[in-house]
Design goal:
Blueprint (H helix, E strand, L loop, with lengths): L4 H12 L3 H17 L3 H28 L17 H10 L10 E6 L5 H14 L4 E5 H13 L3 H8 L4 E5 L8 H14 L4 E6 L7 H4 L2 H12 L2 E6 L4 H17 L4
Length: 261
Amino acid sequence: MSADPTAASLRVMLRSLKLPGFATHLDDLSERATREGWTFVAFLHELASLELQDRGRRRVLRNLKASQLPATKTLATLKLGRLPAPVRTQVATLRNGDFLRRGTNVLAFGLPGRGKSHILAAIGHELVQRGHRVLFTPTFQLVQRLLAAKRDLLLEAALKRLDRFDAVILDDLGYVQQDRAEMEVLFTFLAERYERRSVLISSNLVFSQWDRIFKDAMTTAAAIDRVVHHSVILELTGPSFRADEAEENLRVSSSGTGVSP
């Protein structure tokens, strides 16, 4: 680090101006600029570029922490080869995040263990890396948060906070099938985001079974209409990932002990 008091004072000023990237790279870059004979404009341009890069990295880290995404459920850990070919194509398209500009929803359907949550979480990780704000939450937890907000007359404020997220991933929609109050706040949330903000939903229940969630035919039809109107549907078929992994673990364990499965 330079002993120049002017440089030291400059670093303090840069940090007070919320330019930590400038302060971090100042010494190394000034030495390089002097050595290579840069103009002042070129020096400032490079400092500004490094500041923007640092801000981008910090923003991604903040958004990743706020997203509550499962850390291990990424595209790198997703066994794409086991997914149906149409789903692989859709995932490759969705990862770029263009669907968010149109407020398009993503609906992943399939029996338990088919990778619905993993796929949506993996897409969520890709969106965060591209600078988007994402929230991953089990549906029942979100419903309970909204119920508490409604009880305290703060539902509108809670919905506005959720509106800051470009995408909200509702995991396991099918497990919300309790009382009318839960149905009402869930419907309010979906209606609030309709055609403005994207919702990504995983569910074991096909549309014909959504009356278990929304209780009556009219509300069920209205909810389906809102999530399907602008949507991409991922249909997960084939064997259970979890069952196959359990069988493989058992096989490996048995072979290690010399016992036949």
